[in-house]
Write a structure and sequence with these properties.
By secondary structure, this protein is of the alpha+beta class. It has 1 helix and 5 strands, in the order βαββββ.
């Protein structure tokens, strides 16, 4: 049965001044290692299941690949090989708080 409590709910940071803390650097490295393009969305939710399931809120795009709205997203389910290096709730950029 799927886990109901997320292991992590994290806003995706894109502003350089918000990406320098050691936990954020480790989280960004985890996204890269799992081949998750952080520029595609604004939030990720991870469950400690087997396999490890994530729901990535990806930006809605028009036919030219342009964001329809800075906060309009659709969920995309992903499966990853490792849990992220942090758990709980982590905020993203100020305009994209989970």
């Amino acid at each position: 049965m799927p886990e109901t409590t997320p292991y992590l709910i994290a806003g995706i940071r894109t502003m350089p001044e918000h990406m320098t803390s050691p936990p954020q650097v480790a989280f960004t490295a985890w996204l890269l290692a799992e081949d998750i393009d952080r520029t595609r969305g604004n939030r990720i939710t991870v469950w400690d299941e087997d396999p490890i399931r994530c729901v990535f809120d990806v930006f809605d795009l028009d036919e030219n690949g342009v964001k329809l709205d800075p906060v309009s997203t659709s969920p995309e389910t992903l499966y990853v090989s490792t849990l992220p290096p942090m758990s709980g709730v982590a905020g993203g950029d100020p305009e994209y708080q989970p």
